[in-house]
Amino acid sequence: MGQLKKRERKKEKPEETLSIPPIEMLEKELKREQNKLAQRKGLVKTVGILLVVAAVAVLILTFLFPVVQVYGDSMQTTLYENDVIIALKTPDINRGDVIAFWYKNKILVKRVVAMPGEWIDIDKEGNVYIDDDLLEEPYVQQTAFGECNITLPYQVPEGRLFVIGDNRGVSVDSRSSLVGCVAAEQIIGKMVFRIWPLEKIGTF
């Protein structure tokens, strides 16, 4: 007779017991997670504040302190091509101020020489007279009659400004009927502070 093999009984594994961490460890882990969550919330809040500040800064620069880059040489020797100037959006503009204004989708930079209602006259040498008085212009290196096709003497219309570039021989400005006098709605701002190039930073 064949030998009977004893059926081997599988050894049952002892049940694994779950070890519960001490309450102090659980509290410590909970505090760590709470700190991580607080840090994330703080970071999100900080980023949100920075975005708001940046948006406000852009709005201020756009509507109160627009930044204008100079093109051409019509304002030499006061301003040069590629100079970057901060302008001030203000209704308080007077004779002698340098302003930036829109003209046919371009930005022009010129100096105010005559105010609304004033009579302007220019002689053949380029000397400017306001209401028959010679205008002192220390910012002009060389006078010139320039591109002038308006009838002189000329009265500046109400609500407008008569502007001329400091480089009188090359500037196209209110002396030409192509540009004419500048209306308030055209004005971007009064040029107040040069920020580029760095060696010329400051007022002018």
Task: Report mean pLDDT, rounded to a whole number.
Answer: 87
Q: Which structural class do you get from the secondary structure elements?
A: alpha+beta
Number of strands: 11
Span between termini: 122 Å
> How would you spell out the order of helices and strands?
HEEEEEEEEEEE
Total DSSP helices: 1
Helix content: 10-25%
Shape summary? rod-shaped
Describe this structure in words.
The protein has 204 residues and is α+β, with helices and mostly antiparallel strands. Helices cover 20% and strands 25% of the residues. It is built from 1 helix and 11 strands. The chain has one helix at 23-63, and strands spanning 67-69, 84-88, 98-103, 106-114, 119-122, 128-130, 133-134, 154-155, 160-164, 182-183, 187-196. The strands form 2 sheets. It has a 7-stranded antiparallel sheet with strand order 1-2-11-3-4-9-10, with no helix packed on it. A hairpin with a 2-residue loop joins strand 3 and strand 4 (106-114). The longest helix has 41 residues, at 23-63. The model has no long low-confidence stretch (mean pLDDT 87).
Which key features would you list for this structure?
204 residues, alpha+beta, seven-stranded antiparallel β-sheet, four-stranded antiparallel β-sheet, 1 helix, 20% helix
Q: TL;DR of this structure?
A:
By secondary structure, this protein is an alpha+beta fold. It has one helix at 23-63, and strands at residues 67-69, 84-88, 98-103, 106-114, 119-122, 128-130, 133-134, 154-155, 160-164, 182-183, 187-196.
